Structure formats: C-alpha cells, structure tokens
From TrEMBL:
InterPro entries: Amidohydro_3, Metal-dep_hydrolase_composite, Metal_Hydrolase, Metallo-hydrolase_Enzymes. This is Amidohydrolase family protein. Pfam families: Amidohydro_3 (PF07969). One of its GO terms (molecular function) is hydrolase activity, acting on carbon-nitrogen (but not peptide) bonds, in cyclic amidines. Keywords: Hydrolase, Plasmid. Gene3D superfamilies: Metal-dependent hydrolases, Urease, subunit C, domain 1. It comes from Sinorhizobium mexicanum.
C-alpha cells in the first residue's frame, strides 16, 4: 500500500471531502477513493495546515522538571540574571528541554517552529548546540528555525558578537537582537552589529523589542532605517513591538505604514498584561503578522503550553474579535501568518503542498478556537506525529 487517504474531512471547516497523500505531499483533494492506500476516517473533522509556532524559546523551559516557584524580580534585567543563575543550578539542559517542547508542540498540532536560542558569554554555544541536536533528531517531526539570540545583551557583554557569528556559521538560521536601548543602551552599536551579521551571513533578522512607547518607537525607526538602507525588505521580523500599542496613534500609524513599506513582519504573543500591536491595524496596512508562545514554564514565568490553537484564542481576546471572520483571522495568524514569516515552501491545504496538517473535531474554525478540543490527528509530511492530543514520539 502506498499513500494515505484522509476520508471525510472538511478543509477549513468547509464541505466534506477526501485528501490523498503520497510521498509526504497532498496528491489530490476530492471525493475519489483509490484502492490500495491506507485509510484514515476523519468523521467530518476540520482539517487545517499544521500550526506555525513563530516565537518560541526551546532552550529554556522547565517543562517536565516539576513545578518551579517563580523567583525573578519585576524587571527584564531581573529575569535575565535569574535565568543565568538558575540554568546550571537547576540543570535546564537545552537538548532535553527542547526535545520535550517539540513533543508538546506536536501534540497540539504544530509542525514548524522558529525558536530563539540564547547565545551569551556564560552559556556560549551550549544552548544552540543542544537545540540544533534536537532539530536534527526530530527533523521528520517539525521544521525548525533557530535564531541566534543575544539574551543577555550584545554590546554590554564583549564576546557575544563573536559567539553570535559562530552560531550563524554553525547553522543558526536567523540573527536575533534585543532591546537595543533598554538592554544594551547602545542602539546604534547593537543594530549595526545585528544588521552586519545578517549581511555577512545572508540571513534574516528577528529582534525582540519590548521597549515601550517613545523609546520603542525610536528603536523601531532605527530598525526600519537599516532595513531600507541595506535592502533587507521582507527579511526582518520584530517580535513583541509593544510600542505599537502606545497611545500616540499618529506615531503608531506612521510606524505601521513604514513597516508595510519595508515588509517588516511582526511576531506577537497577544499578551494580556501590557499594550501590544493591534492585529486588525496591521492587517489593514498589509503588515505580515505571526504569533508565538514565547518562553513557557520557565524562569521568566509559570504559564504557557505551546498550544497555538490557544494562542489563536488569546489573539481573539486581545483584539476583541467576536465575529467568525475575525476569529478565523486569529487562526490564520497562527498558521499561514507564521508560514509567510518563516517563508515555508509548499505550505497549506492544496494539491502539491506538504502534507503537514491537523484534524480537529469542531463544527467551524471559530468553534475550534473557542473550545480548543484535543487535536484528533497531526500529520507531518503525511506521517502521524500525534493522535488524540498525544505526541507519538518518545522523549526523555
Ligand atoms: Zn521571546
């Protein structure tokens, strides 16, 4: 028998049909029932493409290590220094913890992940090497991009730039950055270094920008300027961009217009706790928007589970989405939105696409987002990687 027939499934909640999968791709969509193929009856489940987790930190979760009482103080610097201390003390092994997160993400239907991975003068390339090992080991389960991420600052810790350079040479896919004013207090220095690495290695950029209000807007303007000057249109993502949630709407509108012009993407977690970009404003302006869980169950905080269907709910809540088309857009951000930012080839539910898909028992996509049932079946390149909410892979 060659091939797999997914019978009686409803792509995006539409009419029931069958999907034939051969050689890891969708060979045909229609009512045909070829012989000599394995058959999986979807019983009318919704089919969507695999979720794209566009902002994770696979190197740093405490998942599976027992409950950890939160210790860090309120500032970003407190969280960074607490993590540096606890990483070795608690033995947060990046290889083991990233593998656990891959299994967790797969159980919820995620088939592609962009993970920021710490590169700093304490850990050096330990985190990168551990996550890269997981990427290789689970290459048939998830497509993984690694962002070399200077979590502890770049300019304030001499030696970090060289380690970032080494991580990119060793296979990191994306150049990371972090609050060029707030952490490094040297926006020109950090951003010139980040864009310099991107130019040298021919790789895209994804910068964490937590800086609020006018400070964040200032940093964002510097990022836009460099994107334009270096011809990096379409190759830069800004994660969080909390400043786009500030009250100075005139300035926000001007920034959003420039983001659209330079095709700079935004990655959001749709946070409940502070101002954040408005999804519909970005959508209207044509700015690509993807979503991610950020760190989960780590020394930064006790929440998170890598469930992108739940993330779609958070996007809906955050943006006051109520009608069906808006809630469908929230799910779109967690699927196609992420694929557009990661530039995944052959993504989607069409003939010829990779057979990375998720079956969900629900009447409509908005109902799936609201109720978040366990995922019935998750396929990666046509192979089951999770069933009934359980990953089918083994991790420590
Ligand atoms: Zn992050």
């Amino acid at each position: 028998m060659s091939g797999l027939l997914l019978k009686n499934i409803r792509p995006f909640g539409g009419a029931a049909t069958n999907i034939l999968i051969r050689d890891g791709r969708i060979a045909s969509i229609g009512s045909g029932e070829p012989e000599n193929v394995k058959v999986e009856d979807g019983n009318g489940a919704i089919a969507i493409p695999g979720f794209v987790e566009a902002h994770a930190h696979l190197d740093k979760s405490l998942w599976g290590m027992g409950w950890h009482a939160h210790q860090a103080g309120p500032t970003l610097e407190d969280k960074i220094s607490t993590e540096r201390r606890l990483r070795r003390e608690l033995d947060i092994d990046p290889r083991r913890q990233s593998a656990r997160q891959v299994a967790l993400a797969a159980s919820h239907g995620t088939t592609a992940i962009r993970s920021h991975v710490d590169v700093d003068t304490d850990q050096k390339l330990w985190c990168f090497e551990g996550v890269a090992e997981t990427r290789q080991h689970f290459r048939d389960v998830v497509d993984m991009e690694i962002v070399a991420f200077p979590q502890s600052g770049m300019m304030i810790r001499p030696g970090t730039l060289e380690l970032m350079d080494a991580a990119l040479a060793a296979g990191a896919d994306v150049v990371g950055g972090l609050d060029p004013c707030g952490i490094d207090r040297d926006p020109k220095g950090q951003l010139d270094a980040v864009f310099g690495l991107a130019e040298k290695h021919g790789k895209p950029i994804d910068i964490h920008l937590h800086e609020p209000d006018a400070l964040g807007a200032f940093s964002l303007e510097l990022i836009i300027e460099r994107t334009r000057a270096l011809g990096m249109r379409g190759k830069v993502t800004v994660s969080h961009a909390f400043c786009l949630g500030m009250t100075d709407r005139l300035r926000v509108n001007a920034l959003v217009e420039q983001l659209a012009r330079e095709d700079i993407a935004i990655a959001t977690t749709a946070p409940a706790g502070w101002p954040a970009p408005a999804a519909d404003e970005l959508r209207r302006a044509g700015v690509r928007l993807c979503a991610g869980s950020d760190g989960i169950r780590d020394t930064w905080g006790p929440y998170g589970n890598l469930d992108m269907l739940e993330r779609a709910l958070f996007i809906g809540l955050r943006n006051n989405f109520r009608n069906d088309s808006d809630v469908e857009y929230a799910l779109h951000v967690c699927t196609q939105g992420g694929a557009d930012v990661l530039k995944l080839e052959s993504y989607g539910l069409h003939e010829g696409a990779h057979a990375d898909l998720v079956l969900i028992d629900a009447e409509t996509i908005p109902e799936a987002v609201a109720a978040r049932p366990k995922r019935k079946l998750v396929l990666k390149r046509g192979q089951p990687i999770a069933r009934d909410g359980q990953a089918l892979i083994t991790v420590e």
